[in-house]
Amino acid sequence: MPHYSWYPEDDPRHHTGRLHDMLTAVIRHAREDLGKVDDPRAQALLETTAEVCTGLKTAFEHYERQEPAWREHD
């Protein structure tokens, strides 16, 4: 995925790229923290966070690639 700073601020890719990077960081952070806590409920919360953010990240990737669900229709 191209880096968001390559696009001007009025280009949606500037914002979607930035959020994509932020989601990637949250996913990594949540998964790294899984091994740092013993509470099963906290572990489940961290894993759920990673999974939900992964789904959002995938949606941003689909938007960037203009997959059929994200294309404008006449």
Structure description:
The protein has 74 residues and is mostly helical. The chain has one domain. Helices cover 65% and strands 0% of the residues.
What does the main sheet amount to?
A: none
Number of strands: 0
Q: Uncertain regions: pLDDT < 50 for 5+ in a row? A: none
Average pLDDT, all residues:
88
- Helix residue percentage: 55-70%
Shape: elongated
Short structural summary:
65% of the residues lie in helices and 0% in strands. It is an all-alpha fold.
Helices and strands in order:
Layout: H1 12-34, H2 40-64
Supply database-style keywords.
74 residues; mainly alpha; 2 helices
